[in-house]
Amino acid sequence: MKKIITVIFVSLFLSVALHAQTTTTTPKPTETTQKTKKVTFRATKDQIIQVQKILKEKGSYAGEADGKMNDPFRASVKNYQKDNGLRQSGTLNRATLEKMGIALTDKQKEIPVNPNDLKPSGTTADTENKPKKIIFRATKEQIMAAQKILKDGGMYAGEETGKLDDATREGLKKYQTANGLNATGTLNQVTLEKMKVPLTDKQKADAAKQTQ
């Protein structure tokens, strides 16, 4: 009888132990894995001073070699990057330091070069150095001259105010349509030239830039 009780007791003990092992929860991946932080490349003060000395020798930086990233220094870095086929960021990234032959720290060597820094501005989404589109604007005198021409042609009944109001724009559309121009309702260069209204020197210079 004692043997039977002992066997039953041992069987119960083993089953409880096995159950405890199978129900042990495994840690969730989110608890054991950590997200990798994005590492930002930063030049040291000594590296900034070295770059400032190099740019001073080249005559592209007139400030002090104080290790500070001020605006004149950033502008000088941009010019260097432009001349050396790098993206004009104005920052001392790894690509720029290596181009200048400046030694990196062990920590900096662990940070890979950003491929975008090896591309000149304009080849990436960076548009900060793209030339601005020149917008043509008629002067008040030109608008008044156009209003007089429109009045003489029976296309405008208002006063010569020099303002591009709705009535003037409607008259311009009529004039442009009658003269085979795009009916924009704006007093653009083509319309002024068609009306034989003289352009200003600035307007002529802007037009020349557009054709370059």
Secondary-structure blueprint of this entry?
Blueprint (H helix, E strand, L loop, with lengths): L1 H21 L6 H4 L12 H14 L12 H13 L10 H6 L6 H4 L30 H13 L13 H13 L10 H7 L5 H11 L1
Written account of the structure:
By secondary structure, the protein is mostly helical. The protein has 10 helices and no strands. It has helices spanning 2-22, 29-32, 45-58, 71-83, 94-99, 106-109, 140-152, 166-178, 189-195, 201-211.
Question: Could you provide a short overview of the structure?
Answer:
This protein is mostly helical and 212 residues long. Helices cover 50% and strands 0% of the residues.
Please give a handful of descriptors for the protein shown.
mainly alpha; 212 residues
* Low-pLDDT runs: none
Roughly what is the average pLDDT, rounded to an integer? 83
Q: Could you state the order of secondary-structure elements as H and E?
A: HHHHHHHHHH
Radius of gyration: 37 Å
Q: How much β-strand is present in the residues? A: under 5%
Largest sheet: none
User: What is the 3D form?
Assistant: elongated
How far apart, in Å, are the first and last alpha carbons?
111 Å
What structural category arises from helix and sheet content?
mainly alpha
Helical proportion, percent range: 40-55%
Number of strands: 0
The number of helical runs is 10
